[in-house]
Write a structure and sequence with these properties.
CATH superfamily: Aldolase class I
Structural class: alpha/beta
Number of helices: 11
Number of domains: 1
Oligomer: single chain
Distance between the termini: 30 Å
Bound molecules: phosphoenolpyruvate, manganese (II) ion
Radius of gyration: 17 Å
Shape: globular
Length: 262
């Protein structure tokens, strides 16, 4: 299985390894803009924000949905950054495409459903925007590979995977244990598919972002997706794992030093 993902970013003069950053959730136009401007100042070219939030249990903040897609357009117009959001079903895929979101990702809870992935793949058929697929929360590498195959079979060739760790029983010290060696099976099965690390959802804490990012870099990953917020303590979702844009700049610098002296 091949992927045009790296060529897509090279053609836009966006450096690889790729850095995608932005808040867990789109909370307001001003929160998005302040965060995006901070990230832009650090050289980040791709801005993430969840507009539909897949909460494990109902009752929490579930995102502003389609209304917040307009805020992503505003960020793009104000900063020139590419935008990225999560899609959880075919209807989300259609709305995000129509709103001009540049990059789409399928979240961990959705990857676990072949029905949902198939519907999304058919809705996006032939689309040449990048589509990223997070690993399912359970350690089921086949399900992850299957999701990539469903997209590819619908003519989606600008694809990549996100390793966000796995829910495993017991105390691991991580929100989602990386299980790096298990992911080797994915990499061996799909060697041409770029792999991006999500240290935010893996670690579940601000302090773990740096060591996990260094480990991913040492393992030759193709990029990072990091949750950043202009005011992390006030974030409506995943507050404990979000960092400020300036802190991301320091992470990026330390990662490149650690990998350069490998
Ligand atoms: C997210 O990226 O905000 C998210 C919900 O991630 P995951 O699907 O990995 O839980
Ligand atoms: Mn999150």
């Amino acid at each position: 299985m091949n992927s045009d993902f790296k060529d897509y970013f090279r053609a836009k003069n966006i450096e690889l390894p790729l850095v995608i950053a932005g808040p867990c959730s789109a909370e307001s136009p001003s929160q998005l803009l302040a965060t995006a401007r901070g990230l832009q100042a650090c050289g980040v070219k791709v801005f993430r924000a969840g507009v539909w939030k897949p909460r494990t249990r109902p009752g929490g903040f579930e995102g502003y949905g389609a209304e917040a897609l307009r805020w992503l357009t505003m960020v793009k117009e104000a900063t020139g950054m590419l935008t990225a959001t999560e899609i959880g079903c075919a209807a989300h895929a259609e709305l995000a495409m129509k709103a001009g979101v540049d990059i789409l990702w399928i979240g961990a809870r959705t990857t676990a459903s072949p029905f949902a992935v198939q519907e999304i793949a058919e809705t996006l058929r032939g689309c040449n925007r990048p589509v990223l697929v997070k690993n399912p929360a359970a350690l089921d590498i086949e399900l992850w590979i299957g999701a990539m195959e469903r997209l590819h079979a619908c003519g989606l060739h600008n694809i990549a995977a996100i390793h966000r760790g796995f829910k495993v029983p017991g105390m691991t010290g991580y929100r989602n244990a990386p299980l790096w060696d298990d992911v080797t099976r994915f990499r061996d099965a799909l060697p041409e598919i770029p792999l991006i690390c999500d240290p935010s959802h893996m670690g579940g804490s601000r302090a773990k972002i740096l060591p996990l990012s260094i480990e991913a870099c040492r393992r030759g990953y193709d990029g990072l997706i990091v949750e950043c917020h202009c005011e992390p303590d006030a974030a409506l979702t995943d507050s404990f794992q979000q960092i400020k844009p300036a802190e991301l700049a320091s992470v990026m610098q330390q990662v490149s030093c650690a990998c350069a002296v490998r």
